[in-house]
Amino acid sequence: MxxxxxxxxxxxxxxxxxTGETVGDLLTxxxxxxxxxxxxxxxxxxxxxxxxxxxxxxxxxxxxxxxxRGVGPGDAVAFQLPNWMEAAAVFWASALLGAxxxxxxxxxxxxxxGYILDAVRPRVFVTAERFGRLEFRPDVCADVPVVxxxxxxxxxxxxxxxxxxxxxxxPAAPALIAFTSGTTRDPKGVVHSHRTLGHETRQxxxxxxxxxxxxxxxxxxxxxxxxxxxxLIPVLDGTPVHLTDVWDPAGALRLMRDLQLHIGGGAPYYxxxxxxxxxxxxxxxxxxxxxxxxGSSVPAAVTTxxxxxxxxxxxxxxxxxxxxxxxSRHDAPEPKRLFTDGTALxxxxxxxxxxxxxxxxxxxxxxxxxxxxxTARAFDEDGWYRTGDLGELxxxxxxxxxxxxxxxxxxxxxxxxxxxxxxxxLAMPGVAEAxxxxxxxxxxxxxAAGFLRMLPGHPLPGLDAMRVHFERxxxxxxxxxxxxxxxxxxxxxxxxxxxxxxxxxxIAVGT
Length: 511
Fold this sequence. Notes:
It contains 16 helices and 27 strands. The chain is α/β, with parallel strands linked by helices. It has three domains: 18-193, Rossmann fold (3-Layer(aba) Sandwich), CATH 3.40.50; 205-404, 3-Layer(aba) Sandwich (Rossmann fold), CATH 3.40.50; 412-509, GMP Synthetase, Chain A, domain 3. A five-stranded mixed beta sheet has the order 13-14-15-16-17. A four-stranded mixed beta sheet has the order 2-1-12-11, sandwiched between helices. It has a four-stranded parallel beta sheet with strand order 4-3-5-8, covered by helices on one side. Helix 2 (23-33) crosses helix 4 and helix 3 (52-68) packs across helix 4. The longest helix has 17 residues, at 52-68. It is globular and about 70 Å long.
C-alpha cells in the first residue's frame, strides 16, 4: 500500500473525516437504530422481502459460521452475487468479522473471476449456481478454503451461534478490495480502509437530497457505488432498501408506478433508458425528482433534456480509487449543475497538472492497488492521485471533465477529445447514445470512429448527413468522425460505462 503522508493523516483525524470506527461498528450502530426498516429484492428468480433485522440475523449467523472456520480480521471474503439478500448478508458478515470484503460483478466471466481470486487469495468465496452469464465453476475457486453457493449449500455456512459484536479491527486496515469496472483489459484491485470507506459513506449520504424518496438500486452491488448505495448508506440513514437484479426499464417503470419507488440517477444510461421507453409517462416524473449523474461522461444534451422535463439534475465526478472528488449540490445554480461536474467535496483537494490532468487527494482516497507497480505509478509521495482524466476549473472552482488522457484520438498530431465529438453526435436526431474511439488511419495515424445506438424507428445517419450536422455545429473538420457504426446495445461495465476497448477491438477485426 502507499504511504499516506503523516500531515494528511493528522489533518483528516483532526477534522473528523477519519474516525476510530470500523465498518462493522457503523453497521452495528445503524442496524440497531432502525431494525424494522424494509429490505426487498425485486427479482424474477429470487425475490425476497423482509427487514434489516431479518438480513442482520442471517449476516450474524454467517459471521459466526465463518468465525468457527477461522475467518477474522485481515482475511479476505469474496462474493460474486446479483443484487440479492445474500449479497448483503455476506457484506455485513465480512464487516462484522473485520475482514476485507471483495465484491465481484455478477456478470464477470471465468477469466475475470479467476484473475481476481488469484490476486486476493480470499479465505471465503460465495457465489450463485447460475444467473444470466454467471455460472459456478468449481475449478475457478479450487484454491479457496471455504466456498458457498446460494441456492445449494449457502445455508451450511451459517453458524448456530451468531456473532453478537463486531470483532476488533484496525480502522486503517483494508475493509474493501474493489475491482475496477473493466475499461482496461485487466481489472485493478483498489484497496479501501475502514476509514476511507466510512468517510465515503458519510459524505455521499450527506450530499443526497433529503426528499429523494424510496430509492430503487439497480447498479450491481459487485460494483463500488452500487454496494455503498445498497448496503451502507441506507443503514446509516435508516432508509428502505429496494434492489433489482437486472436492469429492465419496463420493470423499473412498473415498480416506480406501483410502489412509488424513485430513481435517483447514476450513469446517464439508467435515466435515459427510462425516458426512451414506450411505457414512460408523465406520471413517472414524480419519481424522477432528482438525477445525480456520474460514473461515465455526462453529455450536456442529456442534462438539458432532463432539466427541460423538470428534473433537478446535478453532476458528480469520482472513481473506484477516489469515489467522490467533486459534485454540485442539488440546489446549486442550474448552469453549474448542468454543465460542470461540481466543486471539490469536503476534505478533498484537486489541482490540474500542466497537461490538464486532474490530480486529487482526500479522506476517501484509496490505500492503493493490489499491484504495487500500479500504486507507484498512480500516486506521488505527497498523496496526490493521478486520475488520468483531463479537466478545466472555472473561476468559481467548478470542475468540468474534458476528456481522458487515454481517450484522446491523435489525428496527424492533433489531439481530439472523444467526449467533445460525442456531444455533437448526441445532438443529431434519433441518436440515443454515442461513443467515439480512435480507429487506425494509414495516413494520419488515427481518426475518429463513431458508434451510435439509435432510437426505435430511426435509421443510422449517413456520413453526408453527419457532416452537414457537424458543419452546422461549427466543430473543426479534423474532429469529424470518418466512419459510423450502429450498435443495438453498447458493451458496458457494471457502472454503466461503455467499454471502449471492445469497440476498438471490433474495428480492428472489421465487425
